[in-house]
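Input structure tokens:
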């Protein structure tokens, strides 16, 4: 997919991976609706992007992805203002083992809802232009991270949902590819909060740090580049891309059916 003129919706766009994704899409000629709950940071970021890329290339919308009403309204506003939707990046996420329901709601439920809302707008069978959806999972969506079981569960859920709905989209002829992004540790606010987010497993903080030291830490720009490749490569659907400091690798799952 060539990105010039394409319209993307990015959740959690005001910081971290979401911000890096937004910037690389803009650099490649795309337009982006930035969705984030942090209004002050989001508006400031839009002003910065306006100076670089022009006011008509971005739209900031305050959106709590836990609110279906806000989420739907944001999609509609993005479509009306930017002229359609071609790319969806479900990026919003949190890490807090003390707040199980909230972690599940943001990391998994909102990804499912965001995917279905994007499909409603992008489905070629109902007047959409087709496109690509990328859901943020994690290294912990491919294997257990003992210090954060709830977070691990949500990311496994994202990978499983993505693979299933991607197959459903292909079989239904929607013209929308759906893939999962599985980065290792990334230098973000979420990563910085790791030592204080372990709840009942705070005694595993040292083990978690040893895993970080072993695997290394990614910069957000490395993750953004991987996303760009997934967006452009039209052969990829139902894939999970593991992004690590040592390189990127599409995951091979055992055949089930």
């Amino acid at each position: 997919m060539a990105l010039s003129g394409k319209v993307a919706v990015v959740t959690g766009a005001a910081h971290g991976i979401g911000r890096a994704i937004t910037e690389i899409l803009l650099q490649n000629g795309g337009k982006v609706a930035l969705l984030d709950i942090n209004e002050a940071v989001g508006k400031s970021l839009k002003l910065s992007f306006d100076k670089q890329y022009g006011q008509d290339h971005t739209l900031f919308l305050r959106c709590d992805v836990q609110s279906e009403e806000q989420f739907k309204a944001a999609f509609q506003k993005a479509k009306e203002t930017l002229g359609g939707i071609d790319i969806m990046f479900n990026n919003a996420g949190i890490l807090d083992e003390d707040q199980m329901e909230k972690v599940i709601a943001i990391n998994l439920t909102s990804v499912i809802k965001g995917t279905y809302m994007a499909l409603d707008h992008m489905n070629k069978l109902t007047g959409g232009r087709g496109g690509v959806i990328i859901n943020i999972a994690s290294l912990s969506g491919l294997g257990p991270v003992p210090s954060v079981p709830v977070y691990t569960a949500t990311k496994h859920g994202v990978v499983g949902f993505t693979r299933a709905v991607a197959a459903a989209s292909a079989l239904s002829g929607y013209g929308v590819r759906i893939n999962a992004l599985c980065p290792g540790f990334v230098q973000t606010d979420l990563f910085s909060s790791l030592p204080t987010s372990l709840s009942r497993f705070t005694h595993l903080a040292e083990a978690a740090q040893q895993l970080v030291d072993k695997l290394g830490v990614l910069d957000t720009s490395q993750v953004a580049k991987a996303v760009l490749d997934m967006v452009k490569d039209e052969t990829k659907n139902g894939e999970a891309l593991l992004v690590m400091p040592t390189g990127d690798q599409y995951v091979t799952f055992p055949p089930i059916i």
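Strands lie at 7-11, 31-36, 58-62, 87-90, 131-136, 176-183, 240-244, 247-250. The two ends are 29 Å apart (CA to CA).
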